[in-house]
C-alpha cells in the first residue's frame, strides 16, 4: 500500500530586521536601549544617522539623502529580508515619506512604527518656524530672552516638538559632546546647529504626513506620549492609514523611547510580533 509522504513542516517566518531613525538634533545613540531589546527578541537591527547628524554631521540635511540612508540600511540586511522601520519625530516624518514612495526597498516593508509625528506639517506654521530659525543662523548671538519666549510659543506649534526648541548656539557653533553613535562605539560628534533645523523644515514644508500615510502599503503603528503636544491630529492620522494602530503611552512626552523606555520597548515587542504574523487589515 502506497502512503502519501508526510507534509514538510512549515517554516517559521523570518522575523523582520529593524531600522531605527532618530529625531532632530540627536543621533543614532538615542536608540541604544531599543537596539539591545530587539536583539534579545531575535531581530537583527541597526540605527542610522540622518544627514547632518551623528556620523553624517558633515553633510546637509535633504530628504532625498535621508531616503538613501534608509535604503542603504534596508539593503544591508539582504535582498529578501522583511524590514520594519521605527522613526521618531523628524525620523518619523522621514520614514513615512520614505515608505510612501513604494520602491523596491519599500516593497520589503513589514511595518512602520511612527513616533511623535501625528501633526501634519502641511498647513502648519512650518515655513514661519523655518524662517525664524534661518534668522538665527544669519545673526551672530541674538537675545536669549527673546529666543526663550519664541521657543515657548513655537514648541507647541512646530511639527518637530521639543527636539527643535530654540537654543542659543555656542560661540562659533562649536557645541561638541561625547556620545555613543552605536553600541560599543563612541565618537566626538558635532551637535547639529540651527542650519539643520532650517534645512529639515524646508524639506518638510508643504509635505503632508496624512498623504504619506495613505500611500504606505504596510501596517503602521502610531505611537505618542500622552503629554506630547504633537498629538493634535492623531485620530486623523489613524483614519488615513490603510492598516493602523494607535498607542498612547501614559506620562511620556515627545521622546517616548527615552521618557519611558520600558513601556516603549513593550510597544516594540507587540508591534514587531504583529508585523511578523500574517497580515490582516
Automatic annotation (TrEMBL):
<keyword id="KW-0378">Hydrolase</keyword>
<dbReference type="GO" id="GO:0016787">
    <property type="term" value="F:hydrolase activity"/>
</dbReference>
<dbReference type="Pfam" id="PF12697">
    <property type="entry name" value="Abhydrolase_6"/>
</dbReference>
<feature type="domain" description="AB hydrolase-1">
    <location>
        <begin position="18"/>
        <end position="265"/>
    </location>
</feature>
<dbReference type="InterPro" id="IPR000073">
    <property type="entry name" value="AB_hydrolase_1"/>
</dbReference>
<dbReference type="InterPro" id="IPR050228">
    <property type="entry name" value="Carboxylesterase_BioH"/>
</dbReference>
<protein>
    <submittedName>
        <fullName>Alpha/beta hydrolase</fullName>
    </submittedName>
</protein>
<dbReference type="InterPro" id="IPR029058">
    <property type="entry name" value="AB_hydrolase_fold"/>
</dbReference>
Amino acid at each position: 500500500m502506497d502512503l502519501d509522504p508526510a507534509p514538510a513542516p512549515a517554516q517559521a517566518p523570518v522575523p523582520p530586521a529593524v531600522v531605527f531613525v532618530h529625531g532632530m538634533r540627536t543621533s543614532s545613540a538615542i536608540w541604544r536601549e531599543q537596539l539591545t531589546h530587539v536583539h534579545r527578541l531575535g531581530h537583527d537591527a541597526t540605527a542610522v544617522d540622518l544627514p547632518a547628524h551623528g556620523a553624517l554631521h558633515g553633510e546637509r540635511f535633504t530628504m532625498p539623502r535621508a531616503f538613501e540612508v534608509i535604503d542603504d540600511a534596508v539593503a544591508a540586511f539582504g535582498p529578501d529580508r522583511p524590514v520594519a522601520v521605527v522613526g521618531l519625530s523628524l525620523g518619523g516624518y522621514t520614514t513615512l515619506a520614505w515608505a510612501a514612495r513604494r520602491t523596491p526597498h519599500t516593497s520589503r516593508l513589514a511595518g512602520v512604527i511612527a513616533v511623535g509625528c501625528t501633526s501634519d506639517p502641511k498647513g502648519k506654521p512650518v515655513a514661519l518656524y523655518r524662517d525664524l530659525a534661518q534668522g538665527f543662523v544669519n545673526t551672530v548671538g541674538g537675545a536669549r530672552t527673546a529666543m526663550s519666549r519664541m521657543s515657548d510659543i513655537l514648541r507647541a506649534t512646530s511639527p518637530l516638538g521639543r527636539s527643535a526648541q530654540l537654543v542659543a548656539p555656542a560661540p562659533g557653533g562649536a557645541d561638541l559632546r561625547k556620545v555613543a553613535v552605536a553600541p560599543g562605539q563612541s565618537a566626538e560628534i558635532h551637535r547639529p546647529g540651527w542650519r539643520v533645523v532650517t534645512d529639515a523644515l524646508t524639506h518638510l514644508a508643504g509635505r503632508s504626513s496624512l498623504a504619506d500615510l495613505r500611500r504606505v502599503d504596510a501596517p503602521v503603528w502610531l505611537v505618542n506620549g500622552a503629554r506630547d503636544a504633537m498629538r493634535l491630529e492623531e485620530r486623523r492620522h489613524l483614519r488615513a492609514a490603510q492598516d493602523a494602530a494607535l498607542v498612547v503611552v501614559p506620562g511620556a512626552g515627545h521622546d517616548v523611547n527615552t521618557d519611558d523606555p520600558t513601556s516603549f520597548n513593550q510597544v516594540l515587542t507587540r508591534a514587531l510580533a504583529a508585523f511578523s504574523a500574517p497580515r490582516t487589515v
